[in-house]
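Q: Got a minute? One more chain.
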Amino acid sequence: MVLNSDDDTMSVINADTYKEVSRIHIGRGPHHLIESPDRHTLVIAMSGSNELALIDRTTGVEKEHVTASDPYQIGYSPDSKWFVAASLRLDRIDVYDGKTLELVHRLPAATMPSHIAFSADSKTVFVTLQGTNSLTSIDLASGKVNWTVDVGPTPAGVITRPSGTLLVGIMGANYIVEVDPSNGNVTRKITTGNGAHNFLASPDGKTLYVTNRVAGTVSALNADTLEIENTLPAPGGPDDMAMSPDGQELWVTGRWHAWVDVIELASGTLKTTVPVGRSPHGIFVY
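A: Always. Here it is, folded:
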């Protein structure tokens, strides 16, 4: 399932034939989608129509739409207590009750809050602020900002490592940074490629993938040492990623060329590209 942000559609691809089998209107400005904590539902964020679409994960049938103001990136805390939406267009961060999806806190965020990560204890959410080159830390219970620190030009994806430190993709440069979650200090820079954007950890936790949107590549890093082990081709402005269930393929949305790259991990080669709608963004592979 691929969200086409500029077409307001969702493409469904047969993963065996690598063919798009359907494309439906899903709502205005669909960007990201995630699984619910019980894995029964896909939650799709549509910033243009100010709503969340809840879709049955097994049947693909829409169950309901929930009003949410400009949800761009979304995420559940590890304990499922909190649901957070970054509102890139309206410069704010919304914290909801994870079970009821009722708004608990609304915080101004200057500017362009985009990607989200949580601390392992579910007490803190970290959000990148693309417009001010910053990363912000928010206490979820109180809704208070712990710190906001400059981490590099146009930060995008953020992920929490098993060690507790954070990694941030610096899209306005060619590297990712490691950040101390207690104070936001940058402790290390790792060069990956121009437009370092987003992250995906392999199912076994041994490899960390980084999309380099301008370079048109994906860097495969050793998850422990953060050393680059391979550079994979991903033409078309690589953005979000998903792993095939057997762990043999990496599926990557190409924002600039309206297709999805399918990378064969054993050989490190581009296996095929699948045409979809304009500006494909979020992706989920069953």
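A: The chain has no helices and 28 strands.
Q: Perfect, thanks.
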